[in-house]
Amino acid sequence: MNYADIKSYDVANGTGVRVSLFVSGCTHHCKNCFNQETWDFSYGKPFTEKEIDFIIEACKPSYISGLSLLGGEPMEYVNQMGLLPLVRRFKEAYPDKTIWCYTGYDFTEYILPKMCKEWEFTPELLSYFDIMVDGKFIEEEKDLNLKFRGSRNQRIIDVQKSLATGQLVLWDEKGAFF
Fold it and tell me: Which of 130, 126, 178, 175 is nearest to 157 (CA)?
């Protein structure tokens, strides 16, 4: 897996101050994507143990609320394989901090019925995610007033509650992880 960037202080991609990892590789190619250079799977640098160590250390301060995974597309097969060691270590080190994952894939229509059955990494990866923002960016649905997403079709999903109940549970900001 390659990555495009690591931001040590990000307040736009999830609640609180977060560390954000932008992975490389995306097959969605959304019109007017904010990060088109990350569509190429070979863009950026190789994601190694060194980067995992850096992210784990960057998440250490108490003012860091968690880790956000963006792209590119974190849920592409090769990226899932690359992210699993990171999220394992993150949750082991910081069980009370959150992981947000941004994906163009639909949680209920594709990730649960297809990826979870066909890709060995997906169920474990989801077990570490607290929040998932799903859905492709759609230019015609763009809304600059939305929190944590770019277009109205995208949903903010409470992953653990959804997995526990077997039903889609949207994130409630009132019960947010601040």
Answer: 130
Partners of 100 in the β-ladder = 68, 131
Residues in the chain with pLDDT < 70?
174-178
125 touches 95 (CB < 8 A): no
149 three-state secondary structure: coil
DSSP character at residue 111: I
- What is the Cα–Cα distance from 132 to 170, expressed in whole angstroms? 9
Q: Are 116 and 166 in contact (CB under 8 A)?
A: no
C-alpha distances in Å from residue 119, one per residue of 61, 90, 116, 159: 34, 22, 6, 18
CA angle 37, 40, 41 (to 5 degrees): 130
Determine contact, residues 111/117, Cβ cutoff 8 Å: no
CA distance 155 to 133: 5
Q: What separation in angstroms does the CA of 65 have from each of 8, 53, 68, 99? A: 11, 18, 10, 9
In order, the DSSP letters of 19-74 are: EEEEE---S---TT-TTGGGGSTTSSEE--HHHHHHHHHHT-STTEEEEEEESS-T
Per-residue pLDDT of 69-103, as tens digits, reads 999 999 999 999 999 999 999 999 999 999 999 99
